[in-house]
């Protein structure tokens, strides 16, 4: 299952720094969007907002039309209670650059942990689910390994399996290959490509891998200074960017 994502006039500042400046964006359910742009342009902040880790100063976030920070009560729109926020957050999964696996737990337990303790599944069911997703990311033979014995690429694949095991409708990937040795990047990108092709989730991918963004996403957003500078089908944004700033950026990074 996948959900649409809508941002309405989202602004966010840290002190004097305006990090997001009135973002309007609608991502239909099942779409894969690549988010590219210079460092410091607000890409991670946007994902953290979607993950409910940050709260916007103004504007609305909607998941499948449902407001994240407010809820309906007695026919009125009121600030969301913790239970509402938890439920909305449960629809979204995120994979970070640094995988933060529990070092004292096997790959299997790392993945089974949240289904067990957040979703309340029994041990058997949680572990069966963990096996299913570790298998999906090609780690069916590493279930009993501790993170210390896994390569960076394998750890990141455990990180992806861990997010998938919560069966999110929207998946956010923040530079998940940036900390990996070059020879390990391809395997992780391949998994993301397969997930995107399945169309079972809405995906937003922040990446510096331009070839990957071009070939594996439906749509690319070029982000700069807290604004969406360009938004179009990936083939067009990479092939014939409409904005001079996008062209300059692509020329500098490719
Ligand atoms: P990107 O992911 O595109 O590199 P970020 O969203 O991480 O950009 O950051 C955008 C801007 O917000 C940067 O100038 C960064 O220094 C600032 N910023 C991010 N998080 C915080 C924070 N928690 N407190 C203060 N400033 C922050
Ligand atoms: Mg970032």
From TrEMBL:
Key words of the record: Amino-acid transport, ATP-binding, Cell membrane, Membrane, Nucleotide-binding, Transport
An example Gene Ontology molecular-function term: ABC-type amino acid transporter activity
Ranges for domain ABC transporter: 5-250
A GO CC term attached to the entry: plasma membrane
Highest rank taxon of the organism: Bacteria
Annotated compartments: Cell membrane
Pfam families (alphabetical): ABC_tran
Keyword ATP-binding found: yes
InterPro entries in the record: AAA+_ATPase, ABC_ATPase_HisP-typ, ABC_transporter-like_ATP-bd, ABC_transporter-like_CS, Ectoine_EhuA, MetN_ABC_transporter-like, P-loop_NTPase
Membrane topology per record: Peripheral membrane protein
Family in the record: Belongs to the ABC transporter superfamily.
Name recorded for this polypeptide: Amino acid ABC transporter ATP-binding protein (PAAT family)
């Amino acid at each position: 299952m996948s959900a649409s994502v809508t941002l309405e006039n989202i602004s966010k500042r840290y002190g004097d720094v305006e990090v997001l400046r009135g973002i309007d964006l609608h991502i239909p359910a099942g779409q894969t969007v690549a988010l590219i742009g210079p460092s410091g342009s607000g890409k991670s902040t946007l994902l953290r907002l979607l993950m409910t880790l940050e709260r916007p100063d103004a504007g609305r976030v909607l998941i499948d039309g449902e407001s994240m920070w407010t809820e309906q009560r007695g026919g009125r729109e009121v600030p969301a209670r913790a239970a509402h926020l938890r439920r909305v957050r449960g629809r979204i999964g995120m994979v970070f650059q640094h995988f933060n696996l529990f070092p004292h737990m096997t790959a299997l337990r790392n993945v089974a942990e949240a289904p067990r303790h957040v979703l309340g599944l029994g041990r058997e069911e949680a572990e069966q689910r963990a096996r299913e997703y570790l298998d999906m990311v090609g780690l069916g033979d590493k279930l009993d390994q501790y993170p210390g014995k896994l390569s960076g690429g394998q750890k990141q694949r455990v990180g992806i399996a861990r997010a998938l095991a919560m069966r999110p409708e929207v998946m956010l990937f923040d530079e998940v290959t940036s900390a990996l040795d070059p020879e390990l990047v391809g395997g992780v990108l391949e998994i993301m490509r397969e997930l995107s092709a399945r169309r079972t989730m809405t995906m937003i991918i922040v990446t510096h891998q331009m070839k990957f963004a071009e070939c594996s996403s439906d749509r690319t957003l070029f982000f700069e200074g807290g604004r969406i500078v360009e938004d179009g089908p990936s083939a067009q944004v990479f092939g014939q960017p409409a904005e001079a700033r996008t062209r300059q950026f692509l020329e500098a990074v490719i």
